[in-house]
Design goal:
Elements lengths: L3 E2 L10 H13 L9 H21 L6 E4 L2 H15 L6 E5 L4 H12 L3 E5 L9 H7 L4 E5 L13 H10 L4 E4 L11 H4 L3 E5 L10 E5 L14 H4 L7 H11 L5 H18 L3 E3 L10 E6 L4 H10 L2 E2 L15 H5 L4 H5 L1 E5 L6 H21 L7
Parallel strand pairs: 1-11, 3-4, 3-5, 5-6, 6-7
Antiparallel strand pairs: 2-8, 7-8, 9-10, 10-12
């Protein structure tokens, strides 16, 4: 049985050209970028070339790019770095209830440290309103952190409007761009962002490398203490091969219009052929590759397993790290009942998906849903 991948929001395959760059860097450019000899300087050149590539892709300067181990570290460096450096007292942070755990748990830790956090809700469309952010700003607000696009629903947030409100109040604004950066065109200057997180494994780079854009003039408290790497913002010997692969991946161009057409083909067929289905979140403001669909009367985890047995990898987005099945905090924050949140499945496409794969997935969803409803104790009256 062949297996097909529709879980690109979780991670993506390493692109062939990126893999070639990665293996070349690991084999040929193995020096420490802090060393002054020939091998070290070769590594330094490769590192700085990657930094320029990342910066150019998002409209930044190379000095504004900090390489990290991934999106979680980038988010943590932004949230803790700004909040802990702030001199205002008391300190107040604004975030949303639909953030990735890398931001949610960082803000929860700040609360334990005495920082007050405002958790803004999302509407039923999955959008955080800029006016809600503006109303939440106080004199003691030291940071606003709202994601660019949600990893579960794909809904794209109005970050430019939020950034404008933050700039007017002179409050630093961070956006978790892990689902957008490297995929769609992003210009941090035009958006008005102060900090922006990127993770390479979402768009063809290997796991274990990411970046944080830090606008010139934003002061951060370091998370890691050691050497003076990354202009004293992130200590530790640089992952030259990973950074080079990230830079290579940032230069790739994906045909997202084709992916959007495939996503729409999949979505239309499921909504038409499977009774009791509905899209979660806005269908107007979302990533072109993502569809989060609710299957009334079916456990999302059961659908994920059923599709996996048919050769298709998707995600429910509802399993926490302990393995216990819990309702998605994102869908709950959008107002869904726990049973509806548990019945939702995320389909996230990537450059390798084809019409034939999508049509096969449609057939698997239709037959899988019918089977699960036949054996489910819940009766669907549709």
């Amino acid at each position: 049985m062949q297996h097909f991948y529709f879980d690109h929001n979780a991670t993506s395959p390493v692109a062939p050209e990126v893999l070639r760059d990665l293996t070349d860097s690991m084999a040929e450019v193995y020096g420490n970028a802090s060393s002054i000899h020939h091998f070290g300087q070769a590594a330094k050149r490769r590192l700085e070339s990657a930094r320029r590539s990342v910066a150019a892709r998002i409209g930044a300067t190379d000095r504004e790019i900090v390489f990290t181990s991934g999106g979680t570290e980038a988010d943590n460096l932004a949230v803790f770095g700004v909040a802990r450096r702030a001199t205002r007292s008391p300190r107040h942070v604004i975030t949303s209830a639909i953030e990735h755990p890398a931001v949610l748990n960082a803000c929860s830790q700040l609360e334990r440290e005495g920082v007050e956090v405002t958790w803004l809700p999302a509407g039923s469309d999955g959008l955080v309103r800029a006016e809600d952010v503006q109303r939440a700003i106080r004199a003691e607000t030291v940071l606003i952190t709202i994601m660019h696009a949600n990893n579960e629903t794909g809904v794209v947030q109005p970050v430019a409007e939020i950034a404008a409100a933050a700039r007017e109040a002179n409050v630093p604004f961070h956006s978790d761009g892990v689902q957008v950066g490297g995929r769609l065109p992003v210009n941090v200057r035009e958006l008005g962002l102060d900090l922006y997180s990127i993770s390479g494994h979402k768009f063809g780079a290997p796991k274990g490398v990411g970046a944080l854009y830090v606008r010139k003039g934003i002061d951060l408290a370091a998370l890691l203490h050691g050497g003076r790497h990354e202009r004293e913002r992130r200590a530790g010997t640089e992952n030259v091969a990973g950074a080079s692969a990230l830079g290579q991946a940032m230069s790739l161009d994906f045909d997202w219009n084709t992916l959007a057409a495939l996503r729409d083909r999949l979505e239309r067929a499921i909504l038409t052929q499977v009774p009791g289905t509905r899209v979660n979140g806005s269908t107007s403001y979302r990533m072109p590759n993502t569809s989060n669909i609710r299957f009334e009367g079916i456990e999302g985890e059961a659908m994920v397993i059923a599709l996996d047995l048919r050769g298709y990898a998707v995600s429910s987005g509802s399993a926490c790290s302990s393995g216990a099945v819990e309702p998605s905090h994102v869908l709950l924050a959008m107002g869904l009942a726990p049973e509806d949140a548990r019945s939702s499945v995320r389909f996230s496409l990537g450059p390798g998906n084809t019409v034939e794969q999508v049509d096969g997935l449609i057939e698997a969803v239709v037959s899988g849903a019918a089977h699960l409803r036949r054996i489910s104790p819940a009766v669907l009256s549709v």
